[in-house]
Each structure stands twice: as C-alpha cells, then as structure tokens.
Amino acid sequence: MIRAALISAVMALPAAAQTAPETAIGTFNAVCFKAGQTATLARTRMETRAGSPLPFDLTFWDITLEPANSAPAQIERRCEVAFAGDHTAPAIAALRVQMAMPPVFGHAIPLPATHRPQAGTALIEARALLRGRIAVVHIGTRSDQTFMAVDRLPADWEDR
Fold first, then answer.
1. Which 3-state string (H, E, C) describes 110-149?
2. Given this model, what pLDDT does residue 17 score?
3. Which of 36, 64, 68, 157 has a CA positioned 20 to 30 A from the CA of residue 131?
4. What is the rounded distance in angstroms from the CA atom of residue 18 to the CA atom of residue 49?
5. How far apart are alpha carbons 30 and 16 in whole angstroms?
6. In what order do the strands lie in the sheet with 145-153?
C-alpha cells in the first residue's frame, strides 16, 4: 500500500522534479493509455509533461486514426517509450499501479500469436479489452535501454 502511494506520488511530480527514468515511466503511464490520439497529439501531451525535446525515444501510431507505414498488419496501435539504463523494476511497479486504477485495464489473457517474450523481456502480458480488442503490455531492456510498450490489437486481428 505504501509502495503504491509512493509510485502514485512520483507519477504526479512535475517532470523537472523527477529523474529521467521517472519522467519516462510517468509520461508513458499518463499518455499511452489514452484512446483517440494521433501521433502528434500523443507527442504534444508527452512534451507538455516531460519537456521538448522529449528526454526519451517515442514510437506512436494508431492506424484507426491515421496511416502508419511501419505498422504490422495485426496491430492497430502502438505506444512505446525507451530510455537509458535498466529500470524495469520501477517501470513494472508503476505499470501495475496504472493498470489497477479505474477504469481497470482489462483482465489477463494468454498472449496472442503476435507477441512473444524476447531477450531482455521483464514483463509481457495480454489483456482483454472492450469490443473484443486486446492490449499487450511489454517492458524490458534492449540496447542498454529500458522500453515500455503497449500495443492494441483489433477484435479481428487473427483475420488480418
């Protein structure tokens, strides 16, 4: 309970009072779970929280709102941040708090065929969402960076 309160307090701090990993983790949780965002809107929201230029790498697209040439056919939306160092433990702890806040972020289901753990994976979990959609959250390390990602698959992902 105290740990959850501390994580919530860190996520609420202004970016200037946070370390770079705390800023990336808090910004991911504050922005990446919001629906209806274009890449420009997601970046703007992140820059409002974290500053411009962003102190982390951002990958964002939502093919239901605008074209994205690099989007795999079975994934309709991706939001990912990557930042220096191995900060998977605080990233997972903060993500768990975020997913438990109302509205609760779906319920755990087996991973879809589109996603598998890879070298450096610390957490990968699928969640059933409304209207048959699936979200996959993924935290790990690659190339000396921590990454946090959430992908959304449409209800018909197996037919694409």
1. CCCCCCCCCCCEEEEEEEECHHHCEEEEEEEEECCEEEEE
2. 64
3. 68
4. 11
5. 16
6. 57-62, 77-84, 145-153, 134-142, 121-128, 107-109
Residues 6+ apart with CB under 8 A from 74: 112, 114, 153, 157, 158, 160
pLDDT at 5: 42
pLDDT digits (tens, 9 = 90+) for 74-116: 999 999 999 999 999 999 999 999 988 877 788 999 999 999 9
Q: Which residues pair with 150 in a beta bridge?
A: 79, 137
Q: Are 37 and 45 in contact (CB under 8 A)?
A: yes
The residue type found at 80 is E
pTM of the model: 0.88
Is there a contact between 77 and 97 (Cβ–Cβ < 8 Å)? no
Enter the tokens of residue 149: 């990602």
